[in-house]
Write a structure and sequence with these properties.
By secondary structure, the chain is an alpha+beta fold. It folds into three domains: 2-35 and 471-624, Aldehyde Oxidoreductase, domain 4; 38-145 and 206-254 and 261-294, Aldehyde Oxidoreductase, domain 3 (Alpha-Beta Complex); 298-470 and 627-779, 2-Layer Sandwich (Aldehyde Oxidoreductase, domain 4). The protein has 19 helices and 30 strands. A hairpin with a 4-residue loop joins β11 (208-214) and β12. α10 crosses α11 (397-404), α14 (502-514) runs parallel beside α15 and α17 (666-685) crosses α18 (737-754). The radius of gyration is 28 Å and the shape is globular. The N and C termini lie far apart (79 Å). Keywords: Molybdenum, Oxidoreductase. Residues 32-146 form the Aldehyde oxidase/xanthine dehydrogenase a/b hammerhead domain. It comes from Mycobacterium terramassiliense.
Length: 780
């Protein structure tokens, strides 16, 4: 309360935390080195695991002699496929569901190693050091076999990665057939092959598990680096054939996930299976070489895209035909996620006709895993095609996009593949980015630079992305809210700290829902023993889905508090106002009772409650998504300079104008966008998880696998357009967009710079060597 100039008491408005740049609550522990990660877990007598991995891309395993390793002091066990694989009961994950046919995924290699790094045996020792020494003593009798590592030749290869899959085709899908008549008669048609290399999530914290089996109680506890603690629990229970209530997953801090930690991989399965066979907790922490070698590849697509335009530059038709490499053991079954590339190819544009066709193929390489925007190739191919078309039609790429981008007044809009866009205005984010950039000012600067022999370029990329997809287990999220006897509030959600700051946003939303001061709210997340089921961090769902769950539980608890306060203050419930962790009377703010006092009554003086009122100050609720998909969109704009002597690219400015609905915390939203954008910049310019012809990975250290640093990335400028979605608060997802839009924006900027020299990059990454080679070829 405050005093006005006449001395009368007035009510201070309740603070609104959602929409403000509240400092992240987790930063204190993380920035001072006090976070709790899997490798920090120590259990009594804990043992350590290490994998024997195949040095061959493909080889028959004739036998494994572990006698020398077992004789090494400190080695407790060596497990092979014969020891672990027969114990698997079920190995499906809710991402695909139990009824979707899956590709093979044995925990340890059975009979044949299928890629370099394939786990062949598991060593358990008293320390990781001893386990590493024992690796050298395990004698595996390999018989090398021919391998197929080039996915563009996999369908015609005599080598089969899996005998049950002819031509190495795991699956595929086709949409409507191309309208060849439109392509034949259009005023302008562009047809380009676009190749995207393998690159990987590379989280700061690699994969890791500590699994402890209690034989007496038949209970299993897992400390995990995961994005999905509840589904990891369910997966483990199914895998081992034990009741889910006997499994507890604890997720504390996670140093990045980016999709790689959604689904348990084969090594995780091994540790779960082995934990019941050893006398103490079992820890496995992946090293960086293992992570780059076997934690899963991403992207790696080769395709041909076509777009047809009328003489006014309007899109008439779009078609894409592509192949995606899924390695030897994809996780999970890849045909479903790859379909999104074709379904989303029309993008945020007015496209009357669209078609797609694709296949996913096996190779003797690490398996495909999820990575931030797994369908990103559709934006890459489409946006490169648009810039090529603009040059062909002698239009500025800005003008071509302006003529074709969807407007707010066109919503709802179904793209030709049936995707139901709504609550978006791609043209508005685009125009905002153009304005921030000062498009005309840059074109003037570009012309002046060219006259001086400098090559500057500008690239745009526009996309629309599905967030919070309400399918299967992703369609609901739970929340429990509890006021403690002190009046402080705990909010329990599946959550977990993997960089998306659900801790902070949940506290902001809860404080608003109850009228509490933010310092009076705390959150407990990532422990399946005490938090409600949730599908975890994936598919840009956490913000909108958790906001829905908090809103529903908060409404229930708020009503309880209002009823209790009304009785205490002897007024009608409609007269009660909740603010500043207290309840007051609307027309007489001097009459108030604190949350602490209300909690004291409920917990310690229940006899003072009115007849029939429960003393429970707790609420649980499950939110069910109100829409099948929430659509976010953005435009990325990038300027660069290319040194035509060396091929080096220097990024000059980077702008992102996005619409993710109202922002719960703008600083966190911008952090998500910036992180994804930097990952995309790496994918455009330098990251390449290459293999040689024999299937040997060539980039399993940071000496060879190059990541962007602060020296390669300019300050990122943000613009925000806020179009509310149909869910609670109007919130939409923000997790994946940065990684989707940045790659084509960078490539288009490079191509714009090199256009006067007749060079166009359609094969990634755009490394200095590749740019120099293209310039040399063009100069001949």
């Amino acid at each position: 309360m405050t005093q006005d100039v006449q001395g009368a008491t007035t009510t201070t408005p309740a603070p609104r935390y959602a929409g403000t740049r509240v400092q992240r609550v987790e930063d204190g522990r993380l920035l001072t080195g006090r976070g709790g990660f899997v490798d920090d877990v120590v259990r009594p007598g804990m043992l350590h695991a290490c994998f024997v991995r195949s040095p061959f891309a493909r080889a028959t395993i004739n036998g494994i002699d572990a006698s020398a390793a077992l004789a090494l002091p400190g080695v407790r066990a060596v497990f092979t496929a014969a020891d672990l694989n027969p114990d698997v009961k079920e190995a499906w994950h809710a991402v695909a569901g139990k009824d979707v046919p899956d590709t093979p995924r044995p925990p340890l290699a059975e009979g044949e190693a299928k890629f370099v790094g394939d786990p062949v045996a598991l060593i358990v020792a008293e320390s990781r050091y001893v386990a590493e020494d024992a690796l050298e003593l395990v004698d595996v009798d390999y018989e090398p076999l021919p391998a197929i590592t080039d996915f563009t030749r996999a369908q015609s290869s005599e080598v089969l990665v899996h005998e049950a899959y002819p031509n190495n085709v795991a699956g595929g899908m086709g949409g409507a057939p191309p309208d060849e008549e439109t392509f034949a008669s259009a005023a302008c048609v562009v047809n380009e092959n676009v190749y995207q290399q393998i690159y990987a999530p590379v989280p700061i914290e690699t994969r890791g598990l500590v699994v402890e089996w209690s034989a007496a109680s038949e209970e299993l506890t897992l400390w995990a680096s995961t994005q999905t603690p509840h589904e990891l629990r369910a997966f483990c229970a199914r895998l081992l054939g034990i009741a889910a209530q006997r499994v507890r997953v604890i997720m504390r801090d996670t140093g990045g996930g980016f999709g790689q930690k959604v689904v348990p991989m084969r090594e995780d399965m091994c540790i779960m299976l082995a934990a019941r066979k050893v006398p103490a907790a079992l820890k496995w922490i992946e090293d960086r070489r293992e992570n780059l070698m076997s934690a899963g590849q991403a992207r790696h697509v080769d395709g041909t895209g076509r777009m047809a335009f009328d003489d006014g530059g309007n899109i008439l038709a779009a078609d894409i035909d592509f192949v995606q490499d899924i390695g030897a053991y994809p996780t999970p079954y890849p045909v479903l996620t790859t379909a999104a590339i074709g379904m989303f190819f029309p993008g945020p544009y007015r496209v009357p006709k669209a078609s797609f066709n694709y296949k996913t193929v096996f190779t003797n390489t690490s398996g495909l895993a999820a990575y931030r925007g797994p369908w990103q190739y559709e934006t890459l191919a489409r946006e490169i095609l648009l810039d090529i078309a603009a040059r062909k039609m002698n239009l500025d790429p800005v003008e071509l996009r302006r003529r074709n981008l969807l407007r707010r007044d066109e919503m709802p809009y179904f793209n030709p593949n049936g995707m139901p866009y709504d609550h978006v205005a791609p043209s508005e984010t685009f125009e905002q980015a153009v304005k921030i950039l000062d498009h005309e000012g840059f074109r003037k600067e570009q012309r002046e630079a060219l006259a001086q022999g400098r090559y500057l370029g500008l690239g745009f990329s526009a996309y629309i992305e599905p967030t919070g997809a309400a399918t299967g287990h992703l369609a609901t999220e739970g929340c429990t809210m509890r006021m403690e006897p002190t009046g402080k509030i705990n909010v329990y959600v599946n959550g977990g700290s993997s960089g998306n700051s659900l801790e902070t946003t949940v506290i902001q939303l809860t404080a608003d829902a109850l009228g509490a001061d933010i310092d009076d709210v705390a959150t407990i997340q990532g422990d399946t023993a005490i938090t409600p089921y949730g599908a975890g961090t994936q598919g840009s769902r956490s913000g909108p889905m958790t906001a829905g769950a908090v809103a529903e539980a908060g409404a229930i608890l708020r009503n309880k508090l209002v009823a209790l306060a009304a009785h205490h203050l002897k007024v009608a419930e409609t007269e009660v106002v909740l603010a500043h962790s207290a309840a007051s009377v609307r027309d007489d703010p001097s009459k108030q009772v604190s949350f602490g006092e209300l909690a004291y009554v409920a917990y310690y003086s229940p006899q003072a409650l009115p007849p029939g009122m429960s003393p429970e100050l707790e609420a649980s609720a499950r939110y069910v998504a109100k829409a099948p998909i929430l659509w976010s969109n953005a435009t990325h704009a990038c300027t660069c300079e290319v040194d035509v002597a060396t091929g080096k690219v220097t990024l000059l400015r980077y702008i992102v104008s996005e619409d993710v609905g109202p922002m719960i915390n703008p600083a966190i939203v911008e952090g998500q966008i910036a992180g994804g954008t930097v990952q995309g910049i790496g994918g455009a310019l330098m990251e390449d998880l290459a293999y040689d012809d024999d299937g040997n990975p060539l980039a399993t250290t940071f000496v060879d696998y190059l990541l962007p640093t602060a020296t390669e990335v300019p300050p990122i400028e943000f613009g925000h357009v806020e179009i509310p979605g149909p869910g609670p608060g109007g919130y939409k997802g923000a997790g994946e967009g940065g990684a989707i839009g940045s790659v084509p924006a960078v490539i288009n900027a490079i191509n714009d710079a090199l256009a006067p020299l007749g060079v166009t990059i359609t094969r990634l990454p755009a490394s200095p060597a590749s740019i120099a080679a293209l310039l040399s070829e063009a100069a001949r």
